[in-house]
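RECORD TYPE: protein structure
NAME: Efflux protein A
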Amino acid sequence: MTSPLTSPTSEGRWTPRLWGTLLVLCAAMFLDALDVSMVGVALPSIGADLGLSTSALQWIVSGYILGYGGLLLLGGRAADLLGRRQVFLVALGVFALASLLGGLVDSGPLLIASRFVKGLSAAFTAPAGLSIITTTFPEGPLRNRALAIYTTCGATGYSMGLVFSGLLTEASWRLTMLLPAPIALIALLVGLKLLPRTERERGKGGYDIPGAVLGTASMLLLVFTVVEAPEVGWGSARTILSFAAVAVLLAAFVAVERRSPSPLIRLGVLRSGPQVRAQLGALTFVGSYIGFQFLVTLYMQQLLGWSALHTALAFLPAGALVALSATKVGAVIDRFGTARLMVLGFALMVTGYVLFLRIDLDPVYAAVILPTMLLVGSGFALTFPSLNVQATNGVDEHEQGMVSGLLNTSVQVGGAIFLAVVTAVVTANSPEGGDPSPQAVLDSYRPGLLVVTLIALAGLLITLTGLKTRREQPSVVVAKSTPQDKATPKEAERVAVRD
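PREDICTED:
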C-alpha cells in the first residue's frame, strides 16, 4: 500500500522523503552485493591470521551464498505476510550485528557462522526492499527509474567491493568485515523514520508452513550441493544422492503449492512468458558474469601477477558504466521496452566474452581487456534493470514480495550453479604435474571462458523469444489471481496469458 508521505507529486516529481526512502533501500542492496565480492580478496589474509585451510576458507564465501540463496523464497513471502517494512528493518539490524561480530571474532567457525547469518539477513532485505519499491512507485516510468537506480546500486556495490577489498585488506582483513556495519546501522536508523508502513496480507488462507519448510530445504540443499560438488566430485555418490534429494523435495514443494490456499509461490505466476523469461534471464545473466569474473580474477592475479588492487581497477570501467547509467536507464526502458534492452544487453555481453578469448600471457590492456570491460559493463547496465522491471510489472501488490524473492533466487542460484560448472570445466582441463607452464594454465581457462560465453548465449536466445510479443502487451496478469488458477485444464488454456 503506497504511503501518501512517499508518493510522487502530481507532476511525477519525487519528494525528498521519496528520495530518502529509495536511498535507504539502495544502501541495503549495495551492502548485499558488496558483501559478496569484498571478501574474496581478503581470504588469503584471513587464512594466514586464523590458520584456516583452503576448504575452510571456501565456506567464508559459501556460507554467505548458502544463507542468501537458500532462504530467498521464504524471505520474499515473509515480506508479504509479515509486512515489508518490518521484515526489511529487522533483517537489516541483524545484518549490521553480524557484520560487527564477523570483524571481531578470532575463530574460523564463528566467522563462517557470522557470514551465514549475514546471508540469511540479505535473503530477507533483498526481496523486502525490492517489493517496497514496486509498491511505493506506481508502475510505469516512475517505477522503471527507481528500479534502474536500485539495481545499478547493487551492481556498483559488487564492482566496488573488489576495490574496497583491495584497499582495506592492505590495513587489515577485519575492516572488510566491519565496513558494512556502520552503513547498515545508518540505513536502519533512517529507514525507521522514512520507510512507508505497509499492510500485512491477512485473511488469505493463513501461512504455508509445509511449503516454507520444503521450499527452504530444497533451496538450501541445492545451493549446498552445488557449492560442494567441485570439492567432492560431480559424479560422487554424495553429489548424486544430494541432487536426487533436491528433486524429491522440489516435487513435494510443487505438490504442496498446488493445493495450498496461501502458497509460498503461486505457480500461476509461471504461466506468463515475460515472467519466465525474466527468471531464466536472471539465471543465465548472473551465472555467466560470476563465472567470467572468477576466471578473469585468476587470470590477472595468477598468470599476469597483478595485485588485488590492480585487478580491481581493471574491472572499474565496467562498474563505472553501470554506476553512471543509474539515472538514465529508466527512461531508456520507457522508450524501448524491457524485451529489446534485454536482447541488446545479452548481445553486448556475448560479444565481450568472445573478444576476451583473445587473451594471452602479455596482453595490452587497452586493446584486449578494456573493450570487454566496456561491453560487459554496458550489457550489465541494460540487462539487470530490465530483468527487474519485467519480473515485477503487472504483479498484484500483495504478491510483490513473492516475485521479488523468486527473482533474487534465480540470481543467487544461477550464480552458484554456473560458477560451479565453470570451475569444474577448468579443473577438468587443468594440466597435470607439480609445476605447469603458464601457457598450460591459460589453456585450461579457455574452455571455462567458452562455457561462460555459451551461458550468456543461452540467455540471449531465451530473451530473443520475447521480441515477437507486442510491446504494448504488458505482463499484467503475471501474478494476478485469474480464473485459470482454479479452472479446469481446458478452461485455463482458454484464458492463459500468451506471449
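COMMENT: The two ends are 29 Å apart (CA to CA).
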